[in-house]
Structures are given as C-alpha cells and as structure tokens.
Design goal:
Elements: H1 2-39, E1 45-51, E2 53-57, E3 60-75, E4 81-86, E5 93-94, E6 99-103, H2 106-135, H3 140-166, E7 168-170, E8 175-177, E9 187-188, E10 195-210, E11 222-226, E12 235-246, E13 252-259, E14 271-277, E15 282-288, E16 299-306, E17 325-338, E18 341-346, E19 353-357, E20 367-370
Parallel strand pairs: 1-20
Antiparallel strand pairs: 1-19, 2-15, 3-10, 3-14, 4-6, 4-9, 5-8, 6-7, 8-10, 10-13, 11-12, 11-14, 12-13, 15-18, 16-17, 17-18, 17-20
Helix pairs in contact: 2-3
Amino acid sequence: MKRIALFLAVFLLLAGLVGGLAYVQFVFKPEMIKGFMAKAAPPPATVAVTEVRQETWSPRISAIGTFRAVQGIDVAPQVGGVITAIRIDSGQDVAASAPLFDIDTSVEQADLLNNEATLKNADLALDRQRQLTRSGNTTKANVDAAQADRDSAAASVQRVKALIAQKHIVAPFAGRLGIRKVDLGQYVSPGTSLITLQELDPIFVDFPVPEQSLAILQPGQTVEVKVDAFPGRVFRGKIETIDARVDQNTRNVLVRATFANKDDALRPGMFANVDVVAGKPASVVTLPRTAVTYSLYGDAVFVVVPAEPQGGGAQASPIVGDIPYKVERRFVRTGDARKDRVVITAGVKAGELVVSEGQLKLQSGARVRIDRKAGLVPPSVLPRE
C-alpha cells in the first residue's frame, strides 16, 4: 500500500509539473508576447510631403470644344449631269465666285436656241399687233394675247439660262478647298458632294458649359485653347456668342468663341481643350492632386505635425535627421483644378506640410518619417482633363 501511495504521489507530481510547463509554453508565453507586441509602436512609415502653397489664380471654366469654320460647306450641284470640266485642285485656296466645276449643258444649250427663236418670233408678232392697233385693224385682246406669248417665251429663255448657270459651279465665298471627290466624266446626281470649302480665318470654337457658369460668362471674355496637334502652344480668342437656351437634357449652354487663324494652323473638326478666363485673379490655397484622398465620406489630406507638442505650436518645424512625426487626418473642401494642382477652400492653411505620397498605409495619429528625396516625377504629357 505504501508503494502504491508513493507511486501515485510521484505520478501526480510529474503530471502537475508537465501541466505547468505546458501552460507556460502554450498559454502564458503567447499571451505575454501578444501583450508586448500590442504595446510596441509600429515603425514610422516613410512618406513624401509637400507644403501647402498660396497662389494667385484667375477664375477659369474648363471645357471640351470643337473647332468649326465660320463658313464651311460641301459643294454640291443643284442639278444632275456629267462633269465636263474640273477647274481647281484639292487643297487650293480660292476666291469668291471662282469657277470650280462644269456640268454638261449640251441639251440646255439646244433648248436655249429653240426658246430664243420662239422669243424672237413672239417679239415680231407683238410688234405687228401693236402696228395694227394704231391703224385700228385689230382688237386689244389680240395685243394682250401677243404680249402674253412674248412674256412666256422670255420666261422660257430665262429658265434655260438659269439651268445652264446652275451647271457652272462657283465658290460662294473665299476659302480653302478640301479633297476632290469626283472625276472628269463622272455622272453626279443633285446634292452629291463634289468637294468641301472652308473659310479658315477666323475660326469658331463651340463648347458646352454647365448652366451654373452662366452668371460669370460674358461675350468678350478671353478664351485659351490647346490642341493636340501643337503641344505647348496656346491659342487665344474671345467669346462671341452665348446660346439663348440651355439644353434640357444636359443642362449645358453652348458657347461660341472666335479665334484669329492667320497661319491656318487650326482646322474645323479639331479637338479643343478650352479654358475661359472668367474673372479677376484671386489668392487661393493649392495642393498637388496626389495629396488629396477622395472617398464617399469626403475628401481628406494627412497633415504632418510633431509627434510630441513643441513650444505650443501644431505646425511641424523643418525635419531634421530621423526624428519621427505623426499625421493628422483632416477633411478638406476642394475647388478648381489645373494640371497637377487643386484648390483647397477649407481644411488646411498655407505653409502646412501635407503627405503627398504614401497615404494608403496611413491612419490618423500614425508616426511617419519624411523622405525629402521621395516623390514621383510627373509625366511630360498629362491626360486630358
């Protein structure tokens, strides 16, 4: 019995020792490590920063427009026939009333000869009736009938002459011709486009703007335009007309501006990036677009502040060495945007430091290190706005 009791005591002692070791290894130790890790602060994130700038911007309205000729048409015949003469070349500059095409008029010329003969006979008959009237040998009714026959013959002559004139196609205004679409000897129907004619100087730009901008739009305001064909070149013109109605589907109003085009660089149909200078310059606070985090809950930025209060001020002093700072998330109200910068109307002040890159890994209160050499290089060609 004593041996059994001793064995049980030793077994219970060993079991308690093993259980205690297991508890320390699998329960106490993991909980202790978890507590240490929870208390340990994560390493500061490395970010790029930018300073909030005070700038002077003129109020602008941006839009997408299309160039349109002051006068531009597809030259087309009013009557059909075979092309008998082509008097111009593609791309040629022509004056008003310059001959362009001739359509066969052989049938009309024959009709003209016949109608002119009829008119001559009618004139003779009318003269005879007038002579007989003076001698009292005819009635006034015969004279009136002869007058009517003469007028009808004259009208027939005029009709054929007008038809012949329609087959001699001329430029209705001065401009530049496009690419010829027909060849010599080709039959053309009425309304067939033969060639385009465009007046290039001056030239219009038509563009829509939201109805909210009507209050600041006025004829005569300066309009700046950039086109893909001439990178870096800015064309300047003036607002000529603002449409009398607002489109009920888009709630936009159509605006037309006029541009001088002495070198014919601008062509109808070209794409136009339009900026309307719509007011006096004003002082604004701006940030790079990359500094703003956009979300459904509001736009926000991360402002860099000292990790520990220094001298009662909240603004970060110049960063020295590896001193960590923390970030403070602030909601902001954005305004106009130009190129890579955006106006901030509320939320930050000029001179504050704001995180410009690396916001995705941040939360309010997170500690950061500032890398002065960090920062993406903007592309030379920005996407269309």
